[in-house]
Automatic annotation (TrEMBL):
CDD domains: ABC_6TM_LmrA_like
GO function terms (MF aspect): ABC-type oligopeptide transporter activity; ATP binding; ATP hydrolysis activity
Key words, A-Z: ATP-binding, Cell membrane, Membrane, Nucleotide-binding, Transmembrane, Transmembrane helix, Transport
Protein species of origin: Actinoplanes philippinensis
The protein's name in its UniProt record: ATP-binding cassette, subfamily B/ATP-binding cassette, subfamily C
């Protein structure tokens, strides 16, 4: 019943087309059931030596109308299935793009992709095999049974006994099909997730000579999917013969019993032909019901997995937030402020412990500390990928929770250390999320980030594809593109996760100059691993074990902070890894 309820919710906005497909399918069944009556008249007339041409003409017209109604009904149903699948994929992908970042932490992206693509394909098949035809099958079965009861109730009793046995066999199978379907869908999702894992890190796989390891992992996942699908196919295969045996057995029983009744005079030859023909049309609605029940049980796993995705929490702006942001001018306050912020990715395991600091509207703030101190977590909270457990994050003096996500992220730009680029051209990546930008501004930012020569040397300039994840560019080039993209969006605050990590000394000096220029027009907050970046900062925050232990300039901290002096002394190059 859960599968039927999920299917009903899914089809809620498509009742009209579904009803139309069901009506056409039912019309085809009714036209088919009219044929035995005309066939009886034609056979009885032929037995009496009279060939009734009008009856034959009407019978031919009925055959044509029957075929047309069924063909149109199947097209309407297929069209409805494709439309529902398209809309469902739009809903799923749109939902996934708004799901809270925390929901991705313990889920595999490949499995979510499988739910949005593979599971929706299962749902399309489910729609094509259940909705409309299943409803019409029930109505057609009732009409066929009524016609058979009117033609000969004794023969109908024989047919019902045989078909009742096949229904019992079906019910015994479908209970297990649902569980098998869920297992198969999970196995397919795990296989896609493992493949996405291997191909997403294909360079690492090759560098570590791990092809056999990943091949073995994929082979194991494929084997599990194979066994799960085979188990489900075996259960589904049991339901088909039950229907076929019922039809064949009923047909043979009707012929034997009917022949005896014709010889005894209890019924005419025309009655037997009409009953036999009507019984063959009884098989169609029965098959549709079998197919619908089986399809719902097979698709129940996919429906449940889709429902689980739609249940994932999404980022939602508070209604009061929009009104608060739109009212009045923005006060001249620090662009970003943390007030006694506590946060942990798991309950009872805080990563940040009472963190508090301010970032002025201009200048550069550096964040240093050892690995695991919480620097990236501060960036994640500043970008509102997560919300604090306690305390508050303020943007321009206003609690960030009362600012729409889009407005907040327009004000706070982020450049990650691995500098992810998207498949597309260099121009596409530069303008991604930037809004209207002039060519003059693009060239100015290219010059600021040292990309002018890079763009000029590309085959098609800014319109050159950069490859999947920007593989056609070097690590340093990808990082500069990410910085340029952020600058073109004109945020009030830019978060930079070690912007010089992949740069050569000349490029590092150029970027240091660029950051100094940028810091004069907006705020910069940098996770600093190199002393060249630290010395350029107007303020340095020392983070250790989730708490701010010291603040000041580079020279001030060398005098006032023993921990900062140890970090500096442990850096040989001079680099400070954190």
């Amino acid at each position: 019943m859960a599968g039927w309820r999920d299917l009903g919710r899914l089809a809620r906005g498509y009742r009209g087309p579904i009803a139309g497909a069901a009506a056409l399918s039912l019309l085809g069944t009714l036209l088919a059931l009219t044929q035995p009556l005309l066939a009886r008249a034609a056979v009885d007339g032929a037995a009496a030596g009279q060939l009734r041409w009008p009856v034959l003409g009407a019978l031919t017209a009925l055959f044509a109308a029957h075929a047309s109604a069924l063909a149109l009904g199947r097209y309407v149903q297929a069209h409805t299935g494709e439309t529902m699948t398209r809309d469902l994929r739009r809903t799923l992908t749109g939902h996934l793009l708004r799901v809270r970042i925390a929901a991705f932490d313990d889920r595999r992206v490949g499995d979510l992709i499988a739910r949005a693509c593979g599971d929706t394909t299962v749902v399309k098949t489910l729609i094509a095999q259940s909705l409309g035809t299943g409803l019409a099958g029930v109505a057609g079965l009732a009409a066929a049974v009524a016609l058979l009861a009117w033609l000969d109730p004794w023969l109908l009793a024989t047919v019902m006994v045989l078909f009742g046995g096949s229904f019992a066999a079906l019910l015994a199978v479908v209970r297990r099909v649902r569980i098998a379907s869920r297992t198969a869908q999970n196995a397919e999702g795990a296989l896609l997730a493992d493949l996405e894992r291997a191909l997403g890190g294909i360079r690492l796989v090759r560098a570590c000579r791990a092809e056999p390891l990943e091949a073995a992992r994929l082979d194991t996942s494929a084997g599990r999917a194979y066994l799960a699908n085979l188990r489900m196919a075996g259960m589904v295969a049991l339901s088909g013969p039950a229907n076929d045996l019922a039809v064949s057995g009923a047909f043979l029983a009707v012929l034997l019993s009917g022949a005896a009744r014709v010889s005894s005079g209890a019924m005419t030859l025309g009655d037997l032909v009409a009953f036999t023909l009507a019984m063959t049309y009884l098989a169609a609605p029965v098959y549709e019901i079998f197919q619908a029940v089986s399809a719902v049980q097979q698709g129940a796993g996919a429906l449940q997995r889709i429902t689980e995705v739609l249940a994932l929490p999404v980022e939602r702006d508070r209604p009061v937030a929009v009104a608060a942001v739109r009212s009045g001018a923005r006060p001249a306050r620090p662009v970003l402020e943390f007030r006694d912020v506590w946060f942990g990715y798991r309950p009872g395991a805080p990563v940040l412990r009472g963190v508090g600091f301010t970032v002025p509207a201009r200048g550069q703030v550096a964040l240093v500390g050892p690995s695991g101190a919480g620097k990236s977590t501060i960036f994640a909270l500043a970008e509102r990928f997560y919300e604090p457990d306690r305390g508050s994050v303020l943007l321009h003096g206003r609690d960030a929770r009362f600012t729409p996500y889009a407005r907040h992220r327009a004000a706070v730009g982020l450049v990650e250390q691995d500098s992810p680029l998207l498949a597309g051209t260099l121009r596409d990546n530069l303008l991604y999320g930037a809004g209207p930008v002039t060519d003059r501004e693009i060239h100015r930012v290219l010059a600021m980030t040292g990309l002018t020569r890079v763009a000029a040397e590309l085959p098609a300039g800014l319109d050159t594809p950069v490859g999947d994840h920007g593989r056609r560019l070097s690590g340093g080039q990808r990082q500069r593109v990410a910085i340029a993209r952020c600058l073109l969006a004109r945020p009030d605050l830019i978060l930079l996760d070690e912007p010089t990590a992949h740069l050569d000394p000349d490029s590092e000096r150029a970027l240091t100059t660029t950051l100094h220029e940028v810091a004069e027009v907006c705020a910069l907050m940098v996770i600093a691993h190199r002393f060249s970046t630290v010395r350029a900062a107007t303020s340095i925050l020392v983070l250790d074990r989730g708490a701010i232990t010291a603040t000041g300039t580079h020279s001030e901290l060398l005098l006032a902070s023993p921990y900062y002096r140890r970090l500096a002394a442990q850096t040989p190059t001079p680099q400070m890894y954190g």
